[in-house]
Amino acid sequence: MCEACDSFLDRMFAKGVLHETGVDGLYGRGAAFEAIIDGLDRLISHLGGGDKAEVIRFPPGMNRALFEKSGYMKNFPQLAGTVHSFDGNEKDHMALLDAIHSGSAWTKAQAATDIVLTPAACYPLYPIVARRGPLASDGALFDVQSYCFRHEPSKDPARMQMFRMREFVRIGTPDQAASFRERWLERARDFAERLELPHHIDVANDPFFGRAGKMMASSQRDQALKFELLVPIESVEKPTACQSFNYHQDHFGSLWGIVTASGETAHTACVGFGMERLTLALFKHHGLDIDGWPKSVRAALTL
To answer: Is this entry keyworded Ligase (predicted)?
Structure first.
């Protein structure tokens, strides 16, 4: 095989599992890739189906005003993406066309719309829950999914800029939120073993921005608020987070005014599945030809 085709990403391009777009981290998905995504969805639904979560599917964009209120720009400005559109008259349009023709910057004629790119599948959920009023005595559980955006272009195929995230989100008392996360930490081991993926679970932190962010990340790790299921994809030394298990304490409850049946500020926890990363892990460890995968893995995905 030629030297240029040696990387995992290049092999996926050559096989048609993924398709280049000319932008790092932005790829088309082939039929085999989508078949695995569908299989993972079925397996995840099987594992969490008995919990009877309310299902909500979000588009890849969310309300800009709610995004601003979320505080995402305070913590992760380097990852955010906004949606802009042309906001000018005919003269401005002609100038825009001239700029495109000459190869100069043409986006100056655009203005921010009321939509931003969704950074995490659970972010549009909390305002919806808050508008419903106090929670029931047993809290609430949601099954959400969305295409998400993180601006971190990379040759590492596991660091896509646009990707699907599926989450189960628990909202309720501190005990309800904490026990939910512990339950999913146990399920995660079974999940990875069914897929026959090498893995381990470790404490982690979010990529908070700046000097203050380092302190926040340290505090998050010290309190063990975030765990990740790690699978080697690009390297064994730096395995990739394919699942996350987060206990937010009362952060989102306080931010959005979500209260329990007794009037206390609600706590939240979530388990997130990186659908593209899990799919990449399967191709990495079982090969690019799905027909050659272990029968037990194919059965787990009902392929």
So the answer is: yes
Strand partners, 142: 54, 169
Give the pLDDT of residue 2: 47
Please name the amino acid found at residue 124. Answer: P
Cα–Cα dist 194/280, whole Å? 16
Whether residue 64 has pLDDT greater than 70: yes
User: How many angstroms from the chain centroid is the CA of residue 224?
Assistant: 20
Q: Which CATH class is domain 31-81+119-300?
A: alpha beta
**65-82 burial, b if ≥16 CB within 10 A, otherwise e?**
eebeebebbebbeebbbe
Q: What is the pLDDT of residues 106-161, one digit of tens each?
A: 988 899 999 999 999 999 999 999 999 999 999 999 999 999 999 999 999 999 99
- pLDDT at position 5 is 54
Binned at pLDDT 50, 70 and 90, residue 170 comes out as: very high
Instruction: Name the residue with tokens 């596991």.
Output: 158
Q: Tell me what the mean pLDDT of segment 171-199 comes to.
A: 96
**Per-residue pLDDT reduced to its tens digit, 87-98:** 889 998 999 999
Segments making up each domain of the chain, as ranges: 31-81+119-300, 82-116
